[in-house]
Structure formats: structure tokens, C-alpha cells
Amino acid sequence: MLTARELDVEVPMERRVETVIGLLRHDIGKDWRVGEMATAVNLSVTHLRRLFTAHTGLAPKQFLCKERLALAHGLLKDTHLTVKEVMARSGFVDRTAFNRAFRRHFAASPNQVRCHEIPCGGAVYS
Questions:
Q1: Number of domains present in the structure of the chain
Q2: Cα of 82 vs its chain's centroid, Å
């Protein structure tokens, strides 16, 4: 991983965004702050937000949420983890916020996704 000092030596801005994306994916459950992301690549918060949005089409926090939701969706489809375990592994701590974000993004509840792929007889929260 590149250090902030190494990044000062003519590193393309896109590479800094890719570095942040790598950090987010590596530790997806962490309570990331945009300031931490910016510090990791030696940029101001404003500059990181501008570059990140230009590179990905999303603000850093939106990107992180989308990545977490994609992970949760995959875990629901491919594992027998409870929804609570899926929430924890994908970085969500509040069940209501998770359900709301999941429904908004996938137009289905976590249990609907689970039951479509893995037979279940009821709620999988525990």
C-alpha cells in the first residue's frame, strides 16, 4: 500500500481514488469517515470528494453504501447466514437503516432475496 508521502510524488489522481476504493473494500465493515479516506491518500476532503465523484459517479459514502449492499445481497443469496450476521459482515449496525437501504436499492427486502434463493420458512433474523 502506498503511503501519503509516496503519493506526493506525481501519483495520478485516479490512482488515489483507486487506493481509497481498495481501502474501503478491504475493510468494508469499518465506520469510515471521509476525512480518514482523504488523509490516507494525502488529499483534502473536498478534493477527494470531487475526484471520487468524477471517477466513480458517486460520493465516497454513497459508493461505500453501494458496496456494502452488494456484499449483503451476495451473502444473502450464497450463504445460510442470518440477516443479522449479514448486516454485521457488510458493515451495517442498524437493522432499520439496513432494511430501508436494501429495499431502496434492490426493490426487495433482505428476506425476500433470501427466500427466493434459499428455501426458508420464515424470518431469518436471530
A1: 2
A2: 19
Lowest mean pLDDT among 47-51, 100-104, 111-115: 111-115
Predicted TM-score of the model (pTM): 0.80
Give the structural domain span for 49: 4-57
Q: Residue 87 pLDDT more than 80?
A: yes
Does residue 38 sit within a domain? yes
Residue 84 belongs to domain with CATH number: 1.10.10.60
pLDDT of residue 48: 96
Q: What are 119's three cell numbers? A: 428455501
| Residue 74 is assigned to a structural domain of this protein | yes
By residue count, the chain amounts to 126
Under 8 Å CB-to-CB from 61, ≥6 apart: which residues? 32, 34
- Whether residues 47 and 77 share a domain: the answer is no
The answer to whether residues 58 and 67 touch, using CB atoms and an 8 Å cutoff, is: no
Model pLDDT, residue 114 = 85
